[in-house]
Amino acid sequence: MVDVPTAKRTLAALARGERPGDREVVRRATAATEDVARAAAFVESGGLGRLRAAVRDTPDAATRRRGARALAEFDRFRRAADGGDTGTGSDARDRARGTDIRADRQGRDT
After folding, report:
1. Cα separation of 105 and 90, whole Å?
2. 20, 13 contact by CB (below 8 A)
3. 84/21 Cα distance (integer angstroms)
4. CA distance 71 to 49
5. What is the pLDDT, as a whole number, of residue 32?
6. Is residue 105 part of a domain?
7. How far apart are the first and last CA of the chain?
8. In this model, does residue 58 exceed pLDDT 60?
9. Ramachandran assignment for 107, one of left (phi > 0), alpha (psi -120 to 50 degrees), beta (any other)
10. Residues 68-71: contacts with CB within 8 Å, 24+ apart?
């Protein structure tokens, strides 16, 4: 039997010019940014290409914004995995560079 609420959502999305899966792709991408394993699985399954297409093609501004934020998160993950700056200003290696961590130097300006 046809799931009436799902059919209504799908028809409404088509009427707005969306592909039926745009919101679902963005929802999955957003959820994936909360967990490294889920993010990796999303990327490995080709999710980034679908996410980029959803952000590019959806006429819904809210879906586009959420998708763009998810893409930015995945870009940040990629930079971190490549050993680059994540853009958050919290790169511990850069903050600690040049810091004397010997016990006799703790608490003093050197």
Report:
1. 23
2. yes
3. 33
4. 10
5. 92
6. no
7. 74
8. yes
9. left
10. 69/30, 70/26, 70/29, 70/30, 70/32, 70/33, 71/29
DSSP state of 104: G
Three-state secondary structure along 51-74? HHHHHHHCCCHHHHHHHHHHHHHH
Q: pTM value?
A: 0.61
Structure-token match 């028809």, residue found: 11
2-23: pLDDT as tens digits: 788 877 877 776 777 666 578 8
Q: Is residue 3 part of a domain?
A: no
Please state, rounded to an integer, the average pLDDT across all residues of the chain: 79
What domain range includes position 75? 13-81
Could you give the C-alpha distances from 79 to 8, 19, 22, 50, 95, in angstroms and in order? 40, 30, 26, 20, 18
Q: How many domains is the chain partitioned into structurally? A: 1
CA distances (Å), origin 53, targets 17, 18, 30, 49, 91:
13, 11, 15, 6, 31
